[in-house]
Structure formats: structure tokens, C-alpha cells
Design brief:
- The chain is built from ten helices and 15 strands.
- With 338 residues, the chain is an alpha+beta fold.
- Helix 1 links the parallel strand 2 and strand 3.
- Helix 2 runs antiparallel to helix 3 and helix 3 packs antiparallel against helix 4.
Amino acid sequence: MSGPEAIPERHDVRAEALPDALLDGDRPVVLRGVVGHWPMVQAARAGAASAAEYLRGFLRPDAAPVVATVGPPEIRGRFFYNDDLRGFNFRREHVPLDVVLRTLLREAASAAPPSIYVASTTVDTWLPGFRSDNPIGFGPRDPLASIWIGNRSRIAAHQDVPDNLACVVAGRRRVTLFPPGQLRNLYIGPLDLTPAGQPISLVDFAAPDLQRFPRFAEAMRHAMVAELDPGDAILIPSMWWHHMEGLADFNVLVNYWWRQSPARMDTPMNALMLALMTVRDLPPAQREIWRDVFDHYVFGADADTAGHIPEAARGLLAPLDDELARRLRTRLLQRLNR
């Protein structure tokens, strides 16, 4: 199985004004040192205790608990399914963020600590003021900022619909990426029961079983990898598969999600779910007909698709705006609730 290639890097990007061409791109890139000047990164370079103390400075006394994902030492940071894929090898607890920070610092000295991971926690809700103290420029975009805190972890390869800028601010991360077209070779698990909301690869990257997952060797021929230190960031374009590893006893990542589409657009995953219910099990000949219908109205849609219909009569075939999207959503709900 051939090894992955390095993710392309840039050393010239300033956090104050990230280039539009970079943020709108469809290829991953590592931005070395782009947030190295952040106070959070400076605190982390002084040690895990300093990083935790810096985060505590933004905690609200009345803040709600965060959701901590906790697994026994034997999972070694691989938050995953149980043996029959009908449950998980971890539990979730609601605890104050300060308790999480103190626990991580205490367990850092343990030879076999529990696996602890606070995932995708909204920065503005739990750490108000953090963003203004650690600014980054996205131009007209208004991304959602989330923080990820934990010890050593291995998060299975998955996709996200939004574009993603992930900034390592404490500890170290290894990121392994695959182009979207590697879906078949990554052996994706259930669509509905998932560890964190997104379908994941069932392959253990630390010990891939090529007898059970032989096509994973082909996926690795397309893989790209980078190791990130505090201050480094990586741009992960929409729908690129990414496997994330926390390599230190105390890791903090801040990421930003945004979409290059109007807010009225729903997630395409909903369309996939409906297609599974309405198209997948049709007789083969009928399924091919619907493939042509989708190509005509969706994947190959252009000015000619509805060009023969007067503009005022195009209905759902007109360009979508907020009002038309609301009408379409109402119509779908009425049909689904029959």
C-alpha cells in the first residue's frame, strides 16, 4: 500500500485578510503559521496549563455544560462503533468546560488515560470574546466558529458539506485527506447511526485490514497528509474526506465552517435520504429513467432546461429565491406527511 503525498503548503497568507481565491478554492492547502500570532497560540507554546488558563479567561460563570465524549483507555482515542456497529465505544457526558480542562491536565500524567473529546462546541456561546481576541479575516463570509478540545484522538474519515478552515492552537494534529471521489474505496458505515452526525469510514487507519477492506489500498494512493503545529491551519474544501488525529496529551483546534451557497439551500444529504426512499429500489429500467430525469433537471440543468416555458410560468424551475425555497419546503413537508 503506497503512502500518501504531502498536502500543498503556503507560508505567505496573513490571517487578517484571507484571500478570496483561497477560501473559494476546491483544493486543500496547509497555511503554515497563519495564526501563530494569536494570544491563544502564544499561551499554548508556554504549555498545556497555560493554554487551559487562557481558555478559562473567557468562560462565563453561567455557561451551560458542554458535551464531552468519553471512552475507556483501551479505545486509545479511536471514537468509533461497538463490535456489531449498533452502538458506540464511548459515552457522552454533560460537564462544565472548566472540569474538562482540569481533567485533561490531570490525566496528561497518566500512562493509560481515558479518551476525552469535546467536539464542535460553538466558540461564541461558550467562550465569548475569544474570537475578538484571536481575529481572522474572512471578508464577507460569516463562518461558524467551533472549538475542539481533547487528549489523543483518532476521528474516522468523514465529509462535511461546508468548507472548513481548521486552526491548530494547542497540541499537534495529523490530517489525512482524500478527494471526494474516494467514497467507494473508504468503506463508509451507516448513514443514519453515526458517531457524530456524519457517516464515517470503517477502516482503522492505524491498522487497516486489507482483507476486509481491499479497496482501501487504492484510496491511500490518492491520500494527502500533513502534521500541524500550533499556529498552523488547513483549508479542507467541501466534501473532502478527512481523518483527524490529536497527537498530544492536550489538543485544541478552532475551526470555521461556511458554505458557498445561499442559506436557503438545505443539506444535499436530505436529498440523498429521499432518493434512498423513492428511487433506489425501483426496477432497473425505471431507475435509469430517473437517472436521466435528475441529469436533466439537476446535474445538467442550464438555461435550456426551462427555456421553452414562459418565465412567469416556470414555478419550481425558476431560479430559487427565499420565497420559492419556502414554498418548495412547504410542498415537500405536505407530501411527506400524507
